[in-house]
Prior knowledge:
Blueprint: H1 8-20, H2 27-38, H3 41-59, E1 61-65, E2 68-72, E3 77-79, E4 82-85, E5 90-95, E6 100-106, H4 116-133, E7 137-145, E8 151-163, E9 168-180, E10 185-198, E11 204-217, H5 221-250, H6 254-257, H7 271-287
Antiparallel strand pairs: 1-2, 3-4, 4-5, 5-6, 7-8, 8-9, 9-10, 10-11
Amino acid sequence: MSFGEISQEEIIQISNNFLLNAPPGEFLEVVTDVRGLLGNDTLLNDTAPQIFRKWNTDQMIQVQVGDHQVLITPYNEINDCEYIDPKGNCVVRYDHIRGEVTGTRPIGGELDGQIEPYRSAIGDSIANYCAEHYENGTSAAFSSRESDGSFNVTVCISSSKFNPNNFWNGRWRSVYSIVFKPNGQATISGNLKVNVHYYEDGNVQLVANANKRSQASASDPGRLAQEVGKIIAKLEQDYHNAVEASYNTMGDTTFKALRRVLPITRQKIDWNKIKNYKIGNDAASYAR
């Protein structure tokens, strides 16, 4: 394959875009395809650590640590290979290239003691919700401080299901930022993403993205956790219903809009005439 006048920087950018847009459960397959297109492993290897890490954290992949799963996300990232695991009270080391946990260490000062009662209560509330509504889901809650000193608890939910034997894979991701000051109002900002890829005899991909917003009382950790759990449950159920309704009507609207009902002449094709034309042309060619 020749890239003509495309610069090496442009080639790297194009290949990275392919990798970062890989469907869930198919990243390594896309890596293999891109490697084949490039024909130069050096170009891929130079940026692989950053691209592998970015894809993994953007997808909020689930990894097994002991008796539970941990999310690898931008929100619990300490450095390029360490991620806070509040449930296991440790920091997980993850190798993005090899795709495996390489070890753990005790949590040091990574958790904010003042936010911890709120983070812990919210984390437990969302874990119960996730267990009830997601067959393959994992949730986590992480804490941080805003520039004005406000508390921020970030809730992450990731659920995936891969079925390559039947040519489909999918992942749900939702992230909620809960910003508040104790005994005040909490602002909840959420982003929900669905990505499903179906590729038997074709290539169809659903990529849905929605932003949500709500408020709750932060009078105490227990009440805030209870309200946050109810709000997230409602937001996600409403979004689920909206996506389902869209699918139910898509066959009669979106898919039909992709092609004309009639040719541009507005006349139906007379297939018998076309057959006769072909027979006539064949006969004429033999006559010559």
